[in-house]
Amino acid sequence: MERILLIDDESNVLEAYQRQLRKDMAHLFTLYTAKSGAEALEILTVHGPFAVVVSDYRMPGMDGIEVLARIRDVSPDTVRMMLTGHADFDTAIHAVNKGEIFRFLTKPCAPDILRGALEAGIQQYRLIRAEKELLEGTLTGCLEALADVLALVNPEAFGKASRLKRYVSGLAQHMGLSDLWLLESAAALSQIGCVILPDSLLTKLNAGEPLTPNELQAYAQHPCTGADILSNIPRMEKIAEIIKYQHKHFDGTGTPCDSKKGEEIPLGSRLLKVALDFDTLRMQDLPRSEAYERLQARKGWYDPAVLEALKAAFVPEQKFKLETLRLSELQPHMVLADGIFDDKGHLLVAKGQVLTEWIVTRLKHMSSDRHIKEPIRVIVPVFQPEGASVPETSALTQ
Questions:
Q1: Which of 56, 217, 254, 365 has the most CB atoms at less than 10 Å from its CB?
Q2: Which CATH number fits domain 2-130: 2.40.50.100, 3.40.50.2300, 3.60.40.10, 2.30.30.60?
Q3: What are the two backbone dihedrals, phi and then psi, of residue 270, each rounded to the nearest 5 degrees?
Q4: What SS3 class is residue 118?
Q5: Which alpha helices (H) appear in the chain, and where do they start and end?
Q6: Is the pLDDT of residue 383 over 60?
Q7: Which numeric CATH code is attached to 154-316?
């Protein structure tokens, strides 16, 4: 059942609406009331999500426009309405522009008009949610398909993208960021532009070997290539922009060469930049603490808040052990200490990759028609409490 929140500083008004609505519409929604904007925001946090919020305009403290604007920020799917006895043209325009109001109702509001507005609001909310769920489901399928293609075409790039996704997810959660799905998706597809690059280039990069001028130029172009690929998919604009700016420095230097700097750079790109450079150093077997110190020494390259989150979330050293296993003994969630190759030297799964059920199944299936080099070295925690996450990096120096 949907939830509706009514906000008015006059108790008698709230009581009158409660009597009217609970009598006629109790089967459609659960009704909540608040006497102030602050109380409304608290109710939204504790009891949300709400399908519809209806707020009075003139209230002490926060007025209705400010309350609805705040609700839009924390719960953008909620349908917002204004109900006031002080209607004028300027107020209506301000309410619509700042709070993105669905309906603007005036007091006294006849019961049938209020009921009709609420029914329309609930219907609008359901349409918004249905479209969002369909979109997320469709995009998730597209992203998974693209990631699978990357895994087949360039295992080194796929391995890097998988590690970046874990880093970005940890950073975002530590910083209390919303839109985790968007940030993780951008990280998972951040290397999609590498489909045009040879595996050897990323292998050299991860090993800390110098790149030729042509290789540097090709590598610098992969974010824009990835952004161009994704820009052809509807509703992927934000992810494409994050990917485009993943090499941009916080002070505005780096690529692409434009005027964006500081917080003008998408937050997802700032997370990715830290994750990318930290991962590159970790793949060269530097301990977490030393890798962090090198990032810290690069003045102007990184968002200080993201660097601080990296230190708190990933720098503390953990104890891991190496195990040498046969292919048949591999399990999901193990981390590869070395890449997995076939007998012809073709890379199948990159070093540092967390094994998924799909990867393990694919490897075992591939072993039926080609020889896979064994034994295989994997990394496991010395002690891992129940529910603990897998290692975020290759942990080769532990």
A1: 56
A2: 3.40.50.2300
A3: -65, -40
A4: helix
A5: 11-25, 37-47, 64-74, 89-99, 111-153, 155-174, 180-188, 199-206, 213-231, 237-244, 267-282, 288-297, 304-314, 357-366
A6: no
A7: 1.10.3210.10
